[in-house]
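anyone seen this seq b4? input:
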Amino acid sequence: MKVVIMAGGKGTRISSVASDIPKPMIKIEGKPVLEHEIECLRDQGFKDIILTVSHLGNIIMDYFGDGSGISPVTGKSFGVNIEYYFEKEPLGNAGALFKIKDKLTEDFLLLNADAMFDVDFNRFVEFHKSHGGLVTLFTHPNSHPYDSGLIIANENGIVQKWLAKEDERPLYYKNRVNAGLHVMSPKILKQNIDTPKIDLDRQLLKPLSGTGKMFCYDSPEYVKDMGTPDRYYAVCEDFKAGHVQGKNLKNKQKAIFLDRDGTINKYVGFLRNINEFELIDGVSKAIKKMNESGYLTIVVTNQPVIARGEVSFDELDEIHNKMETLLGKDGAYIDGLYYCPHHPHKGYEGERPELKIECECRKPKPGMLMKAAEDFNVDLEKSWMIGDGENDVLAGKNAGCKTVLIGNQDYQQDYTVSSLKEFVDRML
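predicted toks r here
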């Protein structure tokens, strides 16, 4: 599969870090970020690369050549085949695709050169092929969804809406952001666009929303924009700490599983009204530290209000959107969310009979944790389960996790704390 890497940006926002080289050549631990990207691709079998360059593009071309040469940093061969398209006039971030479309006869990867990433691309491509769309977006939560474009998808991953930064957004939303990595069919380049510059997001991708032809691939793997000095220095720290490579789903992950009610938000009994949802003081800061620690943060919550007919699936989704929005405003996010809608006891007015069952996901059974472990390649023995009740402790034990109780009861948990903040301060 061919890979197109867009490496023509000027990087004006990060000019204080390096103004005399193109942004993709800014170094992370002594190596250009573009070289990190190419190594990640090469090691997974993606060796046929087209680089689109413009601003100071000769620096990139001189450094990498045709991909057969030796890296001045590692002393080893780049080990890839590189072609170039040089934009003499600015074409927008998608204009070059139409200039090289004759080379793109099969599905291809389209990546940005101004982000640090380490992801399992074979897993990503397999998802794309199995869903049969024109485009698959790599999406993830980030620490600043309030100033990022948002992707809204249905339960099957079909993109329903693409909300750019300037678009009006709902009051509450899922923290799902386009990471700038795409798998595309060449069919998307068969349309005629007559503008001098072509914008990838607004002219090619956004119009596919709601057509059933574009999917999102949600992943917690490491992809971070280096567009500002602060974000660049944060990426440098993450790389030193091993978070960049460690988050690749080829590697076993560590996770912190969190109960919801009484752990993240204030306990009000069965939460049926979105207006009753309030984050516990200090939770956002605690989860932000979890995000920075290299652990995945995954919510696992029993929600019998669904089976009891007291809350609809859409209403529960909106409650969770509120949780993600409030966390996002504080720079925190969750990597995954699993809930059990079942309840075994019958006799409630308006209940849903099909959900009144004995299931494998309702805590204290470990089904939600096991599903998350399968989805995210989690090493349960190196993970934590944190909650405020006996069922949380038992679910964690049944899954093989270390267990933490928020409270003062004794359920044979491994550790006892007064809050999520105390856990983070003591254990991380």
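The chain has a mean pLDDT of 95. The CA atoms of residues 397 and 403 lie 7 Å apart. kinda curious what u guys think
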